[in-house]
Amino acid sequence: MPLTRRHFIRKLAVATLALAASALRMPTALAFWKAEEFAPGTLDATLAKLVPQQAITNSDQITLTIPQIAENGAVVPVSVSTTLAEVKSISLLVEKNPVPLAIRFELSPDVEATVSARIKMAETANVIALVETANGYFRTKAQVKVTIGGCGG
């Protein structure tokens, strides 16, 4: 059976779509849930779980970008970047939340140590960015005033 123009165009379209779909396939981000880290409790108890028996140093090499006043505590944009070397993880903790650990990013050494997210805040509190490196733990903090909303709505 000879190949007609209609069959050729159909096969070309299918091959083009298959090639485009494979080229545009997004890389997968692997995530897993460590429920013990996200347990309700106090800030001190959560820090004790995250940083067992090590000192936490305040650092000016961590940039915490967060609004000083959050109009809606249910959606507070935050970003953290650092120039510290060999970053293993970046965690965000909210001092007065029922579950202080808001989010934790475990990073590969091959990626830039910059993360962004939206967190919930129950009330006006300090937000702490905790950075784990090969040389220890470092932090910076900022106070955010929540005007309405919060975790409870």
Can you say what the CATH homologous superfamily of one domain is?
SoxY domain
What proportion strand?
35-45%
Number of helices: 2
What do the pLDDT scores average to? 84
CATH structural architecture of one domain: Sandwich
Helical amount: 10-25%
Distance separating the two termini: 68 Å
Supply database-style keywords.
elongated; Immunoglobulin-like; alpha+beta; 2 helices; 153 residues; three-stranded antiparallel β-sheet; 37% strand; 18% helix; single chain
SSE topology sketch:
Elements: H1 5-23, H2 43-50, E1 56-58, E2 62-65, E3 69-70, E4 76-82, E5 87-94, E6 101-106, E7 114-119, E8 125-133, E9 136-146
Parallel strand pairs: 1-9, 3-9
Antiparallel strand pairs: 2-4, 4-7, 5-6, 5-8, 8-9
Write structural notes for this entry.
This protein has two helices and nine strands. It is an alpha+beta fold. It has a domain at 43-146: SoxY domain (Immunoglobulin-like, Sandwich), CATH 2.60.40. The strands form two sheets. Strands 1, 3, 5, 6, 8 and 9 form a six-stranded mixed beta sheet that branches. A hairpin with a 6-residue loop joins strand 5 (87-94) and strand 6 (101-106). The longest helix has 19 residues, at 5-23. The N and C termini lie far apart (68 Å).
